[in-house]
Amino acid sequence: MAIKKVTRAEDYSGWYNYIVENADLAEHSAVRGCMVIKPYGYAIWEKMQQDLDRRFKETGHSNAYFPLFIPKSFFTKEAKHIDGFATECAIVTHHRLKNVNGEMVVDPDAKLEEELIVRPTSETIIWNTYKGWIQSYRDLPILVNQWANVVRWELRTRLFLRTAEFLWQEGHTAHATANEAIAETKQMLDVYADFAESILAIPVIKGVKTENERFGGALDTYCIEGLMQDGKALQMGTSHFLGQNFAHAFDVKFLTKENKQEYVWATSWGVSTRLMGALIMAHSDDDGLVLPPRLAPIQVVIVPIYRTDDERIRIDAKVDEVVASLKKQGISVKYDNRDTQKPGFKFAEWELKGVPVRLAIGPRDLDNGTVEVARRDTKEKIVMDLTDLSHKVEHLLEQIQTNIYQKALDFRTENTNNVDSWDEFCEKLESGFVLAHWDGTSETEKKIKEKTKATIRCIPIDNLLQDGKCILSGNPSTQRVIFAKAY
How far apart are CA 477 and CA 251, in angstroms? Predict the structure, then answer.
């Protein structure tokens, strides 16, 4: 069933769904709560993967793979950890079906001795494995990343943002000291922040989660938070200092240089296909997807405009030259020479799919040695000389990347407010980030959430100490924290 096109102002959720499905990014599957990521959407995710994977390897990490199924007993070893996932776990209880009168049913005689949890996150299976890998300080650090799928049973889903199954990467590292583990946690947060800003073109705030919002089993959770166009926050990545919790749970010790047995220090960190949702909601407009050039599977599309076969042949010959020169500069380009669709249809289709630059070329352009260039970010059209076109387009793509980031940064700046009264707090929550004083107690944080549905997104890492009064309790506060409604 086709989704009706709507504007952001009319129906933000409907607008989002329209783009996801009509830009060929993803669709709902036959399995409730799960999605099919279509080739164009997966191509964007692959570009994210490639850039992140390069960054992980440059910081000394290696990829590995661990089982999808985790024995239930592993989860009982770290109570705080499992509490965070208990209501979302999918559980395998049997290992066989049988045919009964032509219907496939679960064989009651095939019940597993121990139930298996379908991976919601991998700390338990990985730390059970690390016990066999670590004996002495010489085995440390272990710097491992896994690209995988996970399952968290969601009842209310939205493509990319919240699905029962999603794709992600999860890093899991082991260290000899707390300082090394903390440094790793912060380093990976910086990796995520730079990736978000330089590749996704989304400005983010780096911060620390409160105890209420902390990852189960972590001593500290660091995060990057982005602001979407509807004024809601989106947690785009997390990095956790796990202390020795999992080492204690799975008895992972190492022999120090001083010949003493000590527990290992741990981290974990991850981002997911939720980044696809961030990409859409941070940049797109009422006409469709707007892609930063560094993530666009197709950076340039060329549309020919002709009436006769002779004109088409002339244009094809010139476009072959243009395509070759663009590819030589490392620019991904598509020549849309379908004769089944008119130019206007092609313009609208590639605009919906967010291609950063569109070139239109006809017989008159050939005669003049020019081409019409349309930018997706500003919708500006200019005429360029065909001479040295590849370098001009390369420069234009960098301009577009910078402009998309700046537009998102300006939006965040305009929708970030300091407030000092409860009424103003409630009013400004509808439009973006609110910086307000909080007394530091879990009770006050919960009350604010109950009253407004807003949460403390983070305590910014670069926060300035500033005396004030808590927005709700009126008790003393030493700093402002970031509140927002969130996805």
Answer: 40
